[in-house]
Amino acid sequence: MNLKPGTWNLKPLLEVRDLTVAFGGLKALDGFSMSVCAGEIHALIGPNGSGKSTFLNAVTGLVAGRGQIVFNGAPLLGLPPYRVFRAGIARSFQTPRLFPSLTVAENTLLGLHVECARKTARELEQAAEAQLARTGLAGRGALPVDRLTAAERRCLEIARAVAHSPLLLLLDEPAAGMSAAERQALAALLREIRASGTAILLIEHDLKMVADVADCVTALNFGKKIAEGAPAEVASHPAVVEAYLGKRQENGTQINADERR
Amino acid sequence: MNHQGTKTPRLLLPWCLGVLVVILPFLVKSPYSMHLLVMAGIYVIATLGLYFVVGLCGQFSLAQGAFFALGAYGLALLQQKLHFPSVFALLGGALLAALFGLVVGLPTLRLRGHYLAMATIGFGEIVYLTLKNWIWLTNGPDGLNIRRPFWPGSVMAYDRIYYFVVVAVAVAAAVAAIRVRRSWWGRALLAVRDNELAASSLGVATTRVKVYAFMASAFLGGLAGAMYAQAETYISPDFFNFDLSIMLVVMLLVGGRNSVGGAVAGAILLGFLPEWLRFLKDYYMLIFGALVTMLMIVMPNGLAGLWKKAVSSRQ
User: What is the complex's ipTM, to 2 decimals?
Assistant: First the structure.
């Protein structure tokens, strides 16, 4: 892949070809291919156990896989996690992985770790404060993380991940456990992050939210791609309805219960 | 008004402690007590070293006694075989320990928890047995005599002056530890301790920051060992056995592994405790062990945790 200046945004930022990840005999991902373009919010949907989180882990170097992953023109597969981050990919986790020994501000500063050598402590603190303000956590910097609500913790994890302005942000169910109002704030934040030049790959169960923010959707089941396209297109795709939406409708009442709370 | 009330004792306490540390060597009468004071300071330096790897980094290392030994023997051999002046031999001993920290840290810091503890025990045993059996180099169990860097005329006066050297180094080490905790490195170490996966996903080269911590830990352990050699003027392998590593870890845990002040307090307390419990004779280890166990149950965050609780409950 040879990227010429000026054409890069037409080419995929992240290109995955024939990715296979096996745990023993089980293939969590089976020849999976997809790409994410610069400047888009790309949703990855699929039932539980379909391989979404495994895909994120393979991209970020947490699990080994076979196949090809090219990011921004360079091969990615086999790099350790910290090199993946330095290449421009940041992520969140399905259950937020914050650092309880550190304050909210210090957690955010960890996202600026790779800039520590180049910036003064004051510049870093200001940058961290700006990220907290951006994610709705202004003034919370001095708190220990266990004083934050579940939704605030997810926001903090995003603040930490975007502090270094990654080219691509991978989010693993960021809206889980959030109220309707919190989801709306999150959707606005995701759009703002996209506008700032960071592409987003979003794993999300809430299809309303996917339809709301995503430019493109890829559906996954049993480690294989079953559909891809615009949100409405994918949502009505027969294979997706069978594998995924049928199940969600049963759970529809649960979403309402969440919203009432 | 209330604000001032809490602020005054906060400033008062360090001053009182500082004055105490300065006048203490002039209050003690016997050379033996003077020597104990020097040893307490040396333990503080070694325990501050452990603070980096066990406290900040959360890696359980039982090799601090070995680094202590490497510092002591490094100083002795640099002086005797290569005729280094005392100050350079002291630094050389500490750097030798740090070098071993790098060599041991690179492969073992990929291990976690019990495995790392076991690997560091193994390293400690190797060092101990080497000191005992490489008679051509270390003079084996007979030990080595160490030249004093200066001689003011009496052992008491020597120890009194050396005490201030130890205190100066210990204060510098404590200040360095506090500064590291507040730096990007300390933040990264705590992040690795809390969640290594998340830290590496944020661009932290986790093995590298851990190896640096291990080297800093070994450096201070080695420095303490080299100072021990100069204070004691004689070293033999038996002092650097496994018990020493255990003792240093216990000092940190009793003091509170999350705080620099805790490391200092634990080292001083456990440095003197054996003397206070001396009247127990044969029952000493039993009572000592029970006491330490009880302390850990009652205050899992050590003396520092207790202090923090007391301060916050008063406000």
Answer: 0.84
